[in-house]
Write a structure and sequence with these properties.
Strand order of the largest sheet: 1-6-2
Radius of gyration: 21 Å
Order of helices and strands: HEHHEEEEE
Number of strands: 6
Mean pLDDT: 86
Number of helices: 3
Structural class: alpha+beta
Low-confidence stretches: 132-136
Largest sheet: 3 strands, antiparallel
Length: about 150
């Protein structure tokens, strides 16, 4: 079976189009289906994975992502972010006697964070970054009044 991997620009255009049309998409799987459907219109041989679509949407700020988690019994560790593969940084606080207390880790690029216990992403909700509404244009002195 022959397949082609779409370029970053083509994939970015498809993600933008789908986000603009749908406004909010409740799961990563549905988001990938919609993007792949749009890519197939451009070239029927295009294939792309859910993870690549998610990472592109997050890292290029094409969509706002809301993450739902489940907490495990394991302790959290510093490493790569499970959402976008960026590095994580330590969250810490100072006590009254100037000692550092580790609170957890947060991603440097996306909204992922974890506390003392490891948090695992369960569901991703994608939505449009911000509603861009053009301001009403006034044409002349009486533009706010409507005449029949």
């Amino acid at each position: 079976m022959v397949y082609r991997i779409p370029s970053a620009k083509v994939l970015e255009d498809s993600i933008r189009k789908i986000i603009r049309e749908q406004q909010s998409i409740p799961s990563q799987r549905r988001f990938a289906e919609l993007v792949l459907e749009d890519l197939k219109k451009k070239n029927p041989e295009f294939k792309v994975g859910e993870e690549r679509i998610r990472r592109m949407a997050v890292l290029k700020d094409l969509a706002r992502i809301t993450i739902q988690y489940r907490e495990t019994k394991d302790a959290s560790r510093r490493g790569r972010c499970p959402v976008c593969s960026s590095s994580t940084e330590e969250l810490h606080n100072l006590t009254l006697d100037d000692r550092k207390v580790e609170l957890g880790y947060k991603c440097t690029k996306c909204p992922f964070w974890t506390g003392p216990r490891k948090r695992v992403p369960v569901r991703y909700i994608f939505s449009i970054q911000g509603m861009i509404v053009p301001p009403a244009k006034k044409k002349g002195k009486y533009a706010q009044w409507k005449f029949a």
